[in-house]
Amino acid sequence: MNQRVLLEVGGLIETPTSVITGPSYILWNQSTIEETGAGEYLGDRSLLTVIRRRNRIAMPGLVNTHGHAAMTLFRSAGDDVPLEKWLKEKIYPLERQLTKEAVYWGTQLACWEMLTSGTTCFTDMYFYMNESARAVHESGIRGVLSIGLLGFTEEMQKQGLADSKSHYETWHGAGEGRISVMLGPHAPYTCPPAFLLQITELSQLLDLPMQIHLSETAYEVAESYRQHGTSPIGLMHSLGVLNRPVLAAHCVHVDDKDISLLAAHDVRVAHNPQSNLKLGSGIAPAVKMRQAGITLGLGTDGAASNNNLDMFEELRLAATLHKGVLQDATAITAPEALEMATVSGARAVFRPTGDGTLTAGAVADVVLLNLESPRFLPTYDLVSNIVYSASAEDVTDVFVAGQEVVRKGEPVTLDTEQIRYQIERITRNFERK
Ligand SMILES: [Zn+2]
Fold it and tell me: Which of 396, 416, 412 lies closest to 404 in space, CA to CA?
């Protein structure tokens, strides 16, 4: 394939508020978009690879701002229990049985599911992240990766900091920039204040953002008040954690003071509506946070608490859930939901400006949807079709950094038969309660 690719489509979502309905094109050179436009490309075509897909719509790849990729291994292994019980009785005993190999194949499975459902960029926070990074590298997806840091003992803290440093040295910027690294303190209830301070220092030293679970359940917030006399977000503020770039997952139980702290420090929030509903944690005040100027992305969380990695579901849920809660049909509009899943998502995970759009200078992370699907008939409003009507089944082709990674619904970079075999082999041996 030539380095310069001309993709001709039947509709183009440049951004959620800049849409071309009808024949249009994207031209990219290696991994970067050079030009987009309506109608036919009128420049010199002689040195271009031309892909003509007039029965497809091109949209920016979806950004999944929170998850634990290898938890695909625990999909449906412990459902219908609240978070604390779910972690202690279902998930931790399974995680103790994890091996490097299991994480590698679990992450491959996640990449298969995400790429074929239109996600081109995701964040991960887990263990054996070297194996996860290897799977991400091979799959062609864009990944923002963190070692999940738990600070129950001093030994664990020391090891976590050393591992994070070497993870950064090995993987930050790998895959021609497709992989970036963040630091991943798991949560205030698993990382004591002194450890959080050390992680914050390392974040400064390596110039890396951090991602952390914050205020996911009412129990977590009540415990924080009991132990520290303040909310989890108040604690992060008093420790100086919020002076660094931070992506906070969940923020379900936040009050007005928490929201102003998040806004004042430009903390990015990963909103995971489905995971929060399924674990009975609650509903994050997404509209209030958006109104306060906070950058919100959408996330699936791990496949053990969702139970899939389908961002089309999150997109639709984010757009409908808050309408119901607030009894306000304008609460989050279709373009606003799509913005959360693309351009705001990219900002939330600290990708460069332009990511999450199909505009000149942005990375060529492109998803094609089947315009011939019944869900796109008729097309009064392409963005509404995508948010309220489309499903992951409508994704036909995906490009990340200009490279084709999904063709006709099938991954081109992954051996799906091998993944299926390995997942069945590995999970057969797990002991479950
Ligand atoms: Zn999580």
Answer: 412
Number of structural domains found in the chain: 2
Q: The domain that contains 109 carries what CATH number?
A: 3.20.20.140
Measure 272 CA to ligand 1 centroid, in angstroms: 9
Is 80 one of the annotated binding-site residues? no
Q: What is the DSSP letter of 48?
A: P
Residues 311 and 172 in one domain: yes
Is 265 labelled as part of a ligand binding site? no
pLDDT in tens, 27-46: 999 999 999 999 999 999 98
Residue 357 identity (one-letter amino acid): T
Q: Is residue 431 part of a domain?
A: no
Distance CA(311)–CA(61), nearest Å, equals: 10
Query: What integer pLDDT is reported at residue 86 of this predicted model?
Result: 87
Residues 48 and 102 in one domain: no
For residues 357-371, average pLDDT: 98
Annotated binding residue at 95?
Answer: yes
Residue 430 maps to a domain? no
Distance 109 CA to ligand 1 centre (A): 18
Looking at residue 3, its pLDDT comes to 85
Q: What percent of the chain has pLDDT over 70?
A: 99
* Lookup result for tokens 């299991």: 102
Neighbours of 378 (CB within 10 A): 6
Give me the CATH number covering residue 403: 2.30.40.10
Q: Which helix (H) or strand (E) holds 32?
A: strand 32-38
For the chain, give the mean pLDDT: 97
Distance from Cα 32 to the centre of ligand 1, integer Å = 31
Q: Which domain holds residue 299?
A: 62-348
More confident residue, 231 or 90: 231
CA angle 396, 136, 124 (to 5 degrees): 100
Mean pLDDT lowest for which of 4-8, 191-195, 227-231, 428-432? 428-432
390 and 271 within one domain = no
d(CA 112, CA 406): 9
- What is the Å distance from ligand 1's center to 302 Cα? 6
pLDDT in tens, 173-222: 999 999 999 999 999 999 999 999 999 999 999 999 999 999 999 999 99
Does the annotation flag 137 for ligand binding?
no
Measure 283 CA to ligand 1 centroid, in angstroms.
15
Residue 2 has pLDDT above 60, yes or no: no
Inside any domain, residue 371: yes
Question: Does a structural domain hold residue 424?
Answer: no
Rg (CA), the chain: 21
Annotation-wise, does 253 bind a ligand?
Answer: no
